[in-house]
Amino acid sequence: MKVFKLFLGFILGSIFVLSFSPFDFWFLSLVIPFLLYLLIKNENFKNIFFISYSFGFGLWVWGIFWIENSISNYGGTTFFISSLLTIGLAGFLSLFQAISFSFFYPLRSNQTINLFLLFPSIWVISEWAREFILSGFPWLFIGYTATENIFFKSYVPLLGSLGVGFLIVLFSCAVGSFVFSLYGKRSKQDLYPIALITLILSINFLLIDLDWTVEGKEVDVEIIQPNLSIRDKWGIDGQIKTQDYFKKNITENIGIKLDREKIIFWPEVSFTGVFSEKKFSEIKDILEEEERLGVVIGTLTSTEKDEIKNSLVGLGLIEGFYDKKRLVPMGEFIPMENLLGHLFDLFQSSRPKIISGSGKEILKSKNISISAAICYEIAYQNTFLEKEGDTNLLLNASNDNWFGQSIGPYQHLQIARFRAAEHQKYLVRVTSTGISALIGPDGKIIQDISISNIDIDQRKFRTIKNKVSLRSGKTPLAKYGKNWFIASILIIMFLITILKIRSKWR
Predict the structure, then answer these.
(1) CATH topology (fold) of 218-334+345-474
(2) Measured between alpha carbons, how far is residue 351 from residues 331, 344, 454 in Å?
(3) DSSP count for the chain of H helices, then E strands
(4) Between the chain's N and C termini, which has fewer beta carbons within 10 Å?
């Protein structure tokens, strides 16, 4: 195998990062898949594995290097050690590309099937596997580039991230094939890419103005971004500052005449310690003076067995609890604790003891029904699909200050925008130090608060005040989920396998 192809694979993966936020060079996602196909199409099993691994490594080492910030700043390690750990994670994640694309070798047949069915299917399978294997890491899906890609935006509420990803890869292969056909002999097969390109673009523009959900009652929203560092938030001064601002903010809202119902949103674990009715009894008494005012706070809750959950709690107008379902590996829980737990003991670190909730609860009032996701739960397509009943407002409460002013929060915001477009509903994104945002049902940012430079901002609380429409109804994705699409891809792979076996028997 030529080292040159390994190098090209790494370069393609590295450049692919630029198609995601904050760079948003989405057109790269329409080029890179086809170029990767060219690299592997005639290679043997071993070469495909290593080229794909090299591609994945380029993607992950640059795409998630923001994790180093968290490890070095809050894990008590040096830059060298945190970099090695991040590179190690990138190396592990690269296996998903390497193993998935290796199936291209035994299943490939004629160029049409390879290019327009097999390769896009394998790409999607590599992403789908990352949703659930070892708790999952559904990050940097190619479908997320559609937040800025006008050619595929209409497909988002229909197919979700995996379905849109399939179409992007298919489109890339069709365009690439068409360009190559211009410089070779003409054949009937040259019509396939033209037909596919025309079909994909036509359907997109026919559906461009279609609303699957409808506008409803308007409510006011206020998003609070505290701009406190993690250390300050958990310190006594930070807790006092948060509580003082909390009471002041509530009192100010009580003191004015509200034109409509209003909800105030606070970030993930913005109130440290374990939630108790007694701790917030004074606030509840104040909120009784204005029945149209509700607050959603991020805090910790405990079970009867004193087990701790990462939760959102509704006060006043908004009632109920939401408990985080998908926990952060090594941060909130230890996967394979019997094995990996000894590492914490070795470094004399305390083991995380957060337990997961059902993830199906909603925060609600008579008219408002909020579907919530805490932190990176938003990256899982099923997070909002699993909720009980219909919801009319989406919420993502997070604590992105772990990642500083890196590209991580921008990628996180892009995923939240995609979720809003999938469901065609307004989404409130509230974080400790940014990026907080109010996102429209088309995935566009209506208003945002940038990542805070804590030193410059001097730990000032910042807010977004706006109104949203409580949209009713469900998109096709919300109605039918993603399983039908995944099943379709698996059927395609099965049929390709059968055809391959039959061709060998002849």
Answers:
(1) Nitrilase/N-carbamoyl-D-aminoacid amidohydrolase (3.60.110)
(2) 9, 6, 29
(3) 19, 13
(4) C
